Structures are given as C-alpha cells and as structure tokens.
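Lab notebook, bench 4. Still working through the backlog of constructs that have no structural model yet. Next entry is a single chain of 107 residues. Request: give me the structure tokens for it.
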Amino acid sequence: MDYSRFAMPAAKDLGQKWMCFKCGTKFYDLKKPAAVCPKCGADQREAPAKPSPAAEGRASKKAAAAAAAAAAAALREVPPPAAPVEEEEAEDAAEEDAEEEEEKEEP
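Model written out:
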C-alpha cells in the first residue's frame, strides 16, 4: 500500500507556527489570514503585546537599582534614641515630689 498520499506536508507548507497566548497550544495557521487557536478559539492577533527583550532587561535593571536604593535608604534611617529608663524614673519621682508638696501646702 502506498502511504505517500497520507504523509504530512512539510512544515513550510503549513504556514506560520504559533503558540496560543491563552492556553499554550502550539499550532500552524495553515496560511490563513487569521491565526485562531484550534483548542480554545483565541484569535492570536488579540494577544497582549510582549515587551522586547531589551526593554525587559532595562526594566529589571531599573527594578534592581530601585530596590538597592530603598535598602540603602532604610539603612541610613536611624530611629531616634529612646530616653533612658533612669531619666524617666527621675522625672516621675520629681513630679510625685511636687504633687506631695502641693498637697502639704493646701491644708
């Protein structure tokens, strides 16, 4: 039996190869004007635009630089020193003494 008539045509005869942006199915457009996914029916002309590899490289470098700058800024920020406990206790004691003296003067 001659199977040559059942053989698949060469890939160049099938048109452009596509990968569906919705479902990931690989298919050929069979040289039709609209590349439509045979599995999910998505028109590939409506695919979201992908940034060029050069633009992706610039974006990742900018993001890395921004992250480094934020980390450096965080390291530079020093919180104000907390008041030592001894000073707070001394202030509280002074206030209490003042209140006691006022109470003694009132009667």
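Notes after review: Helices lie at 53-76, 85-105. Residues 53-76 form the longest helix (24 residues). Flag for follow-up if needed.
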